[in-house]
Amino acid sequence: MREVLAGAAFQLFLERGFEQTTVDDIVARAGVGRRSFFRYFPSKEDAVFPDHERCLADMTAFLEAGAGDPDPVGTVCDAARLVMRMYAAKPEFSVQRYRLTREVPGLRTYELSVVRRYERTLAGYLRGRWAGAPDGALRAEVVAAAVVAAHNNALRSWLRSGGDGDADAAVEHALGTVREAWAGGTPSVAAEPVTGAELAASRAHEDGPAEGEVIVMVARKGAPLWRVVQQVEAALGAD
To answer: Does the structural domain 51-182 have CATH classification 1.10.357.10?
Structure first.
């Protein structure tokens, strides 16, 4: 019944326009009463996005199953792919909904609220994984926002193209930028760089670079991860 009502509503939105369609019109097209509509949808806007509640539930279950995954950033990226797959499963409907949403300000506002729910779900998972770590809560919010932004960039590009192209490849490329930036970014590892003298003293070979040379850095909690990476690259002579 939920699908029947959503299908009737969307047909009417396309035929008459969103603002011109009433709940009475929808239930008349579906052949049911008003109570049936409100049993499944609190508003007309909800009928435009009938699949997000299920996708949010699937995402939550996926994240719960990955509670022990050693790569939490990879886990939230994989969770975000569930949303793209939902859209790609019905490309024609997804493209039509995207165009309708662009035309109706109220639907754009509703869509933003749905996106925020996904972001909160991802951030909640990361906060749990990084509980007690320095800046764990902040990092969780930042990474979740980055995942959602990357995913939505790929999704909207695909929708603007009319559903052409490989949706999975597009989102994989976008999320790859997040994983590249945050891979191994568990915030329990942070450091302040040691001095050049300390680095020099730690070299296994003091006479210059040699095959198998080892460089040791002393790590201190509290420094941002980007600084640790920067200092490691500098010590190794990496570009």
So the answer is: yes
Query: 2-47 has which CATH code?
Result: 1.10.10.60
| pLDDT, one tens digit for every residue, the chain (239 residues) | 888 999 999 999 999 999 999 999 999 999 999 999 999 999 999 999 989 999 999 999 999 998 888 999 999 999 999 999 999 999 999 999 999 999 999 999 999 999 999 999 999 999 999 998 989 999 999 999 999 999 999 999 999 999 998 999 999 999 999 999 887 555 543 334 444 444 343 443 344 444 556 666 665 656 666 566 666 766 776 55
- Decide if 219 contacts 190 (C-beta within 8 A): yes
